[in-house]
Design brief:
By secondary structure, the protein is an alpha/beta fold. The protein has a single domain, classed as Rossmann fold (3-Layer(aba) Sandwich), CATH 3.40.50.170. About 40% of the residues lie in helices and about 20% in strands. A six-stranded mixed sheet has the order 2-1-3-4-6-7. Strands 5-8 form a two-stranded parallel ribbon. α1 links the parallel β1 and β2. The longest helix is centred in the N-terminal third of the chain and has 29 residues. It is globular and about 55 Å long. The termini are far apart.
Amino acid sequence: MMALAPKLRIHFVTEDDPLYVIKFFETFFAVYPRETFELTGISIQEPFNESRVATARRVLSLYGPVDFARLSCRVTIQKLRGRSIAALALREGMSLVATKSVNDPEFIRRVRISRPDVIVSVAAPEIFRDAILGSARLGCINVHSGQLPKYRGMMPTFWQMRFGERHATVTVHEMAATIDSGAVLGTAECPIREHDSLDRVINETKQQAARLTIRVLTDLAVGASSPQPLDMTNASYYSFPSRDDVRSFRKRGHRML
């Protein structure tokens, strides 16, 4: 009898987001091939790796008072319902590996004990340094909701809409020491309507990203991956949008929610 191939052992690093990032995990957990993947653990950090007060101020500046209030109500409702990435992960039988930093030596030691083949970053809120990048057999991959290297950095969905792209491109790529510069493992496109909402496009990209990640991980599991190096000659990097950026976004006919 032919021996079964070992499952691909996967550790996730993500941020605590009950509205958008959770859509990735809802989709992923619903359809991933359990006969091929073994989910060894998940680490869930604070958004932007900062205090909740600092994040609230950041989001208020982006959304404005009315949409911020609406968004806050959504978050409160989800939390009252007990809807969280941690709850989903526990239902999958995953270990919650807490840390304030993925670069902490003790965290890296704990992750290595579980022997992951690959670490997957889904909106992880900090830069991965060399030690964590080298802690899994096949390295680390990142799920980025933007075309690379054109839309490196923060809030790529916002920037693609802000600059009039017809599609939001989801990219899964190898992680490297330089942010958003590793070889591309796969892409998917989500149409952007002429007058659209950031809310709708983010929801769509998260679900597409989950399906794309499954395809990429399946290729890694069977040794069929074909990384495509990035040409960084004309690369761009975007930080968190300013109020002027939001005004330009709205002038295109887009809205936040």
